[in-house]
Amino acid sequence: MTRESAYHMGDVTSVRIISTLKRTGPYDRVWQPFIERWRGGHLLVAFGVRLTGKVDMGDIICSISTDDGDTWEEPVTIFDHRVGLGLLRVAYANPVLYHPPGQDVVWCFAMRCSLYYHDSEDSQLCAAYSADGGLSWHPVELAVQYHSPLITCAGIVKVDKGENTRYLLPVHRNTLRHDPQGRQDQLVLESTNLLEWKLAGYIPQPEGHKVFMHEGNIAFGDVEDELKIVMRTAQYGRKGGKPLDPPTAYSAVSCDGGRRWSPGRPELDLYNTVSKAYFGRDTKGNHIYVYNVGPARERRGLAYKIKHPGEAWSEEHIFFEANVRNSYPTLLEYEPGQFYAVWDSSSSLDEKRTAIRFGKFSTE
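Structure (tokenized):
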């Protein structure tokens, strides 16, 4: 880790570089970080290192900080494409870290696909756990009762109903990319034990037209027992990837714990141009949305909006801007209204995803 010294604009503070792309070896990018807290100032950030010639496929590694994000250790490996599953060779993508409250393990959920694939659109759910704060990782074969490819991206939400606890994991599928009879769907998986996962429900398409809703983040809503998902969007179709007009995130709500959802609808105050955004709620009830500004695929500056209880979304504010490429923000609340943040970044506008950055942010 190198201490961040370059000038930047925005309300994120204590910015550090966790890791940078090593210019030797078979990798060409670092991407899609996810942060979790072990205890105190002991933090874990998992992210991908992409194999040259592949699209969103590679290894998953994890860097540790024991001083609340000020310095970061060299990463250790969670999932390695060089380690086969019998005769099967696979690659990995899109880590999701989760520390179950009251437990002394941290989970890393991710997705894996055959190594000979060009991209990771048709993947399966996989997992590993660490019982020593991220120093070592142990793979676990999950029982996944959802019989279709999936793509991970956003974090797990714990839902308590009486004495029953369920864990919700938003995922999506894009089988339409390689199959003319395929689909593009946002959906939610559920588990009672983090080992067996079943389909909880789909996000229905908007009435009258289709939208490629994906990479959704789930948070508790504005009223009791309400869950809300806010999703990245693109035009629906096999040749998709183009932004909506106007570029807008879509949302849906559930009032039964994530099994039945309202049809997707546009969030006209939330800009989205085919890039992952973070949506969440702090313990004070404030919702936050962190997203890329600018045209599709530019992925330069990051901005944010806050919605206080009973109020409209705020004006746009700068989250991070340093004349470099930035994308895929993920936040974690560590104190009321106080967040850790990670995102993939670079050192210039001429390159993408060559660094993983960390910072702190407040909704106050």
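The chain has no helices and 27 strands. The chain has a mean pLDDT of 95.
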